[in-house]
Amino acid sequence: MAASVVDTTLDVEAARAHFPALKDGYIFADNAGGSQCLKGVVDRISDYLLHTNVQLGAGYTVSVSSTARVNEGATATAELLNALSPDEIVFASSSTAAVNNLAAAVAADILDGEEIIVTGEHEANAGPWKRLAAQRRLPLKVWEHTPSPSQPNEPYAIELALATLLPLITAKTRLVAFTACSNLLGTVVDVAAVIRAVRAEAERHGARKLEVCVDCVAYAPHRRIDVQAWDVDYCFFSYYKVYGPHISVLYARSRALAGLPSLAHHFLRVGAQAYKVSPGGTGYELAYASAGVLPYLRALSPAGAVDDAFARIATHEHVLLRTLLAYLSGADARARGVRIVGDSEAGPRRAPTVSFVVVGERAVRSSDIVAYFDKKGKMGIRYGHFYAYGLVDSLRPKIDLEDAIVRISLVHYNTVAEVDTLVDVLKDALDALQ
């Protein structure tokens, strides 16, 4: 009997109807910098501020309601991440702030001489651990990108290979912080496989205590985060890149939290609660509003299942990615000097975040390309290093860090017609600028 084919089609028009910003025809193609916000999320912000805008934790009715609403955000986020408890969810103003707080707490449990390993790209994750290592004079190692074996002749085709990470693990390894998806390259890492391998290697060496922190900022819009399946200690993402408000989330495993000192006021009884790594309250209306993302994702699935919703997102985004890469990696683009930064294959380990440069005799500044798109109107792409400063700096031939690269970053509410338009405008830009 033939195996049944699972339908993972996404109803894109139904999804787009939830985003008022999409109704005037503007093409948003800088989604890795921040996605558009759901109407249901905006409605929650308004309702909170108009009806329950009081301090939490008091005994009067409105405060009780306000507290319950903020807790609703943590409960929905825990379900989204498959966390065991809302107590493992910490809200912060940004991902950088969340990891800075985490590093400050973890510092007390790192012994002199123990080692930290980071990936050398997104500074929201790498930066706080680098600073901690410098302050404590701890050995810092970098899991470097290496040339992609499938594209050996492409100078910008690079990847994170597990084979280059494992030799960095020793008996002194205390923490490994890596990126689940590159916001520059679009490459998706097999997080569960990396964590399994790292834990096994650390155990083989007899490491005292190993913890793992995963940067999911560029991963969360495209794939399901499952903290239990991953066996991760800490991970984080920004809701404003996942169709929500401008607030970020740190997941901290209960048993990891239990061993951390509290950053909160000394007189507060926080126990093993997530408030231990949150020195103060963060955007109550935003925390409540974040609960509006989960029902939207459920609505993308006929079965109301989050995993199915992300499968549908991935299916549609693969079509967008394939359409964009077909031109950027094709003969016409290459003849014009276009070179993709990252993998040019639209495989399953690839998000629709595509970066490129125009080099050689027909070189064009990245800033000029983006300006041309803006001049055309009703569309937005971006150029720069995107807080992956170290990674851009490492690319050879050398890329100008000020001008850096062009990035087109798509999500599931983008359409194939929009991608076709972006490609046509890029062709016009190259004609005009070369």
Written overview of the protein:
The protein is an alpha/beta fold. It has two domains: 154 residues, Alpha-Beta Complex (Aspartate Aminotransferase, domain 1), CATH 3.90.1150.10; 249 residues, Aspartate Aminotransferase, domain 2 (3-Layer(aba) Sandwich). The protein contains 16 helices and 15 strands. Strands 2-10-9-8-7-3-4 form a seven-stranded mixed β-sheet, sandwiched between helices. The protein has a four-stranded antiparallel β-sheet with strand order 11-12-15-14. α11 packs across α12, α12 packs parallel to α16 and α14 crosses α16.
Quick structural summary:
By secondary structure, the chain is an alpha/beta fold. It has helices at residues 12-16, 39-51, 61-81, 95-106, 123-136, 162-165, 191-205, 227-230, 254-258, 284-289, 293-299, 306-328, 331-335, 366-376, 389-394, 416-433, and strands spanning 27-28, 89-92, 115-119, 140-143, 146-147, 158-159, 173-179, 211-215, 234-238, 248-252, 338-341, 353-358, 379-380, 382-384, 405-409.
Please render the helix and strand layout as text.
Blueprint: H1 12-16, E1 27-28, H2 39-51, H3 61-81, E2 89-92, H4 95-106, E3 115-119, H5 123-136, E4 140-143, E5 146-147, E6 158-159, H6 162-165, E7 173-179, H7 191-205, E8 211-215, H8 227-230, E9 234-238, E10 248-252, H9 254-258, H10 284-289, H11 293-299, H12 306-328, H13 331-335, E11 338-341, E12 353-358, H14 366-376, E13 379-380, E14 382-384, H15 389-394, E15 405-409, H16 416-433
Parallel strand pairs: 1-13, 3-4, 3-7, 7-8, 8-9
Antiparallel strand pairs: 2-10, 5-6, 9-10, 11-12, 12-15, 14-15
Helix pairs in contact: 4-5, 11-12, 12-16, 14-16
